[in-house]
Amino acid sequence: MKRLLELLEEDSTLTVHELAVMLNMTDEEVAEQIRKLEHDGVINGYHALINWEKSNENYASALIELRVTPQKNVGFDDIAQQISRFPEVESVYLVSGGYDLMVCISAPTMQEVALFVQKRLATMDGIFSTATHFVLTRYKERNVNFNSPETRNDERGSNICD
Amino acid sequence: MIDYSTILNPQVQALKPSGIRRFFDIASEMDDVISLSIGEPDFTTPWHIREEGIRSLEKGKTWYSPNRGFEQLRTEISRYMDRRYGLVYDQKSQVLVTVGGSEAIDMALRALVCPGDEVIIVEPSFVCYDPLTRMAGGVPVSIATTEETKFRLTAAQLEAAITPKTKLLVLPFPSNPTGAVLRRKDLEEIAAVVRRHNLFVLSDEIYAELTYGSELHVSIAQMEGMQERTVVINGFSKTYAMTGWRLGFAVGPAEVIGQMTKLHQFGIMSAPTMAQYAAIEALKNGDSDIEYMREQYDMRRRLIVDRLNAMGLTCFEPEGAFYVFPSIKSTGLTSEEFCERLIYSHRVAVIPGSAFGECGNGYVRISYAYSIRNIQQALDRIEAFLQEL
Question: CA nearest B131 in A: which residue?
């Protein structure tokens, strides 16, 4: 099960048959496991990993630290859910340390990111401070090293007798 | 004008250049070639191992090491042989650290072979045994293994190749290029023949850790009475993805290792110092790296065998190394023709089996030391190529 998840996490375009061969399982077994993992909410989507800096599209993103007042009974859940509803928000984490919520957001421009923080986030009830960190460059994302000289070229092959 | 052919050693001039080179040359001049031709890991050396190499430089460890290699490394090698195979070697006299497995092969052949001695070479195999045997004054005698016996050497084949002049058996398993392995039973039978004829064995086990399935690699030195008549060669290149560090080792009887060390000290001095520091870390803390890489190779191996069989290139299931050796006989082409047409028409580079001995004709070597994405794309092209034949 863990191997299957690891393989899919690395490349979700692998077919059921390919996965089955690699894992020494039958196609049916793999299909059934995937169905179950999806049903149980373990697998929640299959996405492409995009380096927006390389595309010609406008793209800005930021990590925002939020300090919030936990509410009675629901703690941080309510406010986290409210924040999650904005389409600009890519992820929301409750974290330990000097602040409570870490929110990752993206928008076409830095200005739009800033406006979103000012108008939408900072004004929400229960939020008493924000600290916005704009992302300048992404070096590594989800285990993939963007621009790493090690992964760019296959420099092997100069050897004749291996 | 100097006529260099009269100056150069005729024996060296007579050596055939490696058959692999031609395809690298073709591939390097074309764009958009997908290669499945390379015989080295696609992984970079695990970071904790690289770091030890770097640290040694930072500390200014830039001197020669002792000729045999650092004692600490020899100790770790000897521990490894014990924990992995139950073979005990004295790190002071029975271990030699070399510049890659290749140097160890050369030193062993030169230390053992007398002029006219016959050296049995199991083919298809890595290209260096034949020329190095010749340069040591020996006479290579090849045994052609076949797909019918899973490219394993059989005791009967060995028996049939032995003459009064036979000195040494070169045993290259897990095999480059076939991916064949020898299991304990095969080794027991071969060992019996070796003992009966009083032969010596050079066992090139560089791919030992890349053995798939539930059974681990077994060394012929583990067979009864064989440790005293075997030099085992292994190294760090394939096991820890350390090809560029150039580090291998030989273990065997003190008498043989002693003579090899003499040659090594005259010709090489000592293996690279920083590489040895990195290797100590590899042996101490690298077991999980081996495990990780083996699992990755194993998944690719299954994938590639399945696809090749599905497209009609029947493929013996390799159990070791990182190569598959499918038969291309159904295409009616020779290995060379197949590879040449494939690269020119569909830009995929694989190596003709004939580069690894005559008996490799009718096969090609495909390496899976590549990412899955790369393998898939190359296989798509090979499939299209087959359909157009």
Answer: A161
Residues of B in contact with A161 (CB under 8 A): 18, 20-21, 126-128
pLDDT digits (tens, 9 = 90+) for B231-285: 999 999 999 999 999 999 999 999 999 999 999 999 999 999 999 999 999 999 9
Task: Report how far residue B269's alpha carbon sits from residue B276's, in angstroms, rounded to the nearest whole number.
Answer: 14
Q: Domains of chain B: which residue ranges?
A: 4-45+288-388, 47-286
A160 and B24 Cβ atoms separated by less than 8 Å: yes
SS3 label, residue B128: coil
Fold classified for B4-45+288-388: Aspartate Aminotransferase, domain 1 (3.90.1150)
What's the CATH code, domain A52-141? 3.30.70.920
Q: Does B351 touch chain A (CB under 8 A)?
A: no
Q: Are B141 and B162 in contact (CB under 8 A)?
A: no
pTM for the whole structure: 0.89
A21 CB neighbours in chain B (<8 A) are: 302-303, 306
Domain ranges of chain A: 2-39, 52-141
pLDDT tens string B62-110: 999 999 999 999 999 999 999 999 999 999 999 999 999 999 999 999 9
- If we measure between CA atoms, which residue out of B184, B216, B177 comes closest to residue B362? B177
ipTM exceeds 0.85 = no
CATH class in words for B47-286: alpha beta
The pLDDT tens digits for A101-146 are: 999 999 999 999 999 999 999 999 999 899 999 999 999 998 888 8
The pLDDT value given to residue B20: 67
Strands A101-107 and A127-134: unpaired
Question: Residues A80, A82, A83, A84: what is their CA dihedral angle, to the nearest 10 degrees?
Answer: 80
Check if B292 contacts A (Cβ < 8 Å): no
Q: Does an H or E element contain B366, and which?
A: strand B364-367
Pairing of the two strands B348-349 and B323-324 = unpaired
For residue A41, the distance in angstroms to the closest alpha carbon of chain B comes to 26
Question: Chain A residues with CB inside 8 Å of B356's CB?
Answer: none
Which H or E run contains A141?
strand A140-141
pLDDT band for position B35 (50/70/90)?
confident
